[in-house]
């Protein structure tokens, strides 16, 4: 699963700051900023890759007795090692930069280091705890109710909870489009739960998916709150620290659950765990952050719908899961609700920009 909440719900000022940051990073490395087309490609690949994480988990469950907490622990460990390598390469590239680009990057890094310790600790710990609950509950939901339903509920309910949380904690208005999207998402959840009479939708699994979505929303709201005055920090570095916190926090729980799987197919299980750490974690996160620095947040929200869609396709075509008419209807309602929130954000951003231009004129 993804941690794209770190960027998806950022406000307009955060978008502009991210674009400037991405350009500065590229300049420090001596390369041009990523084009929009390339950024969109990065995001598409990241969304599809994230959609395969639950599929890999489903396969691991089928051939071993490993549980969701142990699986989440190994993802954190593998992600931590690989993303630490990405950060090391990025630092080496920056150190090799020369001239004005290097001076600008040093100035930006110096400003980042002025972030108060308490604020930085809140950002890192909040992200770490939220990410741990998010992915552990998601893997448990996949085990309980299947890949398609678990992914759709988690990724469909997440943006809705973010919108509601932002309204309650930061006074952000939902608007007519936001209210309609929330209503549509709630209707989709009702259809999924009450319409799953064939046993394909299990209430316990839906509850776990909602817990995962709540943790997803909490991480986003913390990041959004801290980023309102430019204190969002480095998302890639924050995610790396978050995986470290997750690995430490999950270790005792994973040991109690069973850290090492009992299976006759150790090679296959090890390959799947390595895949989860490498592709939907390290690779997808790196591509996501590179693309999200260029593309608008609302556009990112829509593109990331590829994650539940790709998960649903894999569940039906490769894992043999059945999608009833009610499941399909609920899924479409949830996805439509997220799309509605994204387009509502786009319209609001346009209004704000025009208002700012009018004031400046």
Explain this structure:
The chain is mostly helical and about 350 residues long. Helix content is about 80%, strand content about 0%. The chain contains 15 helices and no strands. It is globular.
SSE inventory with pairings:
Blueprint: H1 5-8, H2 12-28, H3 36-51, H4 53-63, H5 68-96, H6 99-113, H7 117-145, H8 147-170, H9 175-195, H10 203-226, H11 235-257, H12 266-292, H13 297-303, H14 306-317, H15 325-360
Helix pairs in contact: 2-6, 3-12, 3-14, 4-7, 4-12, 5-7, 5-11, 5-12, 7-8, 7-10, 7-11, 8-9, 8-10, 8-14, 8-15, 9-15, 13-15
Percentage of β-strand residues: under 5%
* Coarse morphology: globular
Can you tell me the residue ranges where pLDDT is under 50 for at least 5 consecutive residues? Answer: 3-33
Mean pLDDT: 77
What's the end-to-end separation, in Å?
44 Å
Q: What is the number of helical segments per DSSP (H or I, 4+ residues)?
A: 15
Helix share, percent: over 70%
